[in-house]
Request: fold
Amino acid sequence: MNKMKYLIWILSMLIAMVAIACFATEAGREIREYQGKRLDPFDRAYDNSIKGPQRVDIKAYRLHITGLVETPQSLPYQEVLRLPAVKRAITLYCVEGWNEHLLFEGVRLADLLALAKPKRGVRFIIFYAADGYSSSLSYDYAARRDIMLAAKINGRVLDAKRGFPFQVVAESKLGYKWVKWVTRIELSDKPYKGFWEQRGYDNGADVQK
Ligand SMILES: Nc1nc2c(c(=O)[nH]1)N[C@H]1C(S)=C(S)[C@@H](COP(=O)(O)O)O[C@H]1N2
Ligand SMILES: [Mo]
Reply:
């Protein structure tokens, strides 16, 4: 009988531990619907990035803001996250023909750039990434659309596949403008062609619907 009680106790402890683990995992917390609209899943099988998923060491990580600025910045992850949080469900369209509707959460690019005090004459914003990828956006477009740098998708912190620590959310622009694993933002007065743009893709990259 004692043995039986012991067994039941062990079993209930195991069940409790599994339940807690399930509850605590990011997967369990994923948001799959927002404002009445279905969201696509955070996890998916494929990855089309130029060098595959990137592992960014967050302790060593700094988000650099350079170029035509008064005060260049080099911000630790947590310092970026101290800026006011914003949240928006947006669709990403890739030139390969697929799209995904996801809930992005992060900080406003405008808030980030304000820390560095942009100089007069800035016309382009260049984003550089941990995998050597880059792309640019016009300063006017970014301001008009009030674009954000995402730290979360569907309520989950980005991972090595999704672009941790930050992905550019270039609403109304094609997927190749949505730079993942962002390490540096440079402000410039000259147009810049990123990885795919140098290979013939349109630098405007407006989604045609
Ligand atoms: N650093 C980096 N960012 C990148 C890419 C890349 O290869 N490297 N690919 C781009 C392309 S072509 C697309 S369609 C989107 C895909 O973003 P997703 O993985 O969040 O769907 O990431 C963009 N950002
Ligand atoms: Mo893409």
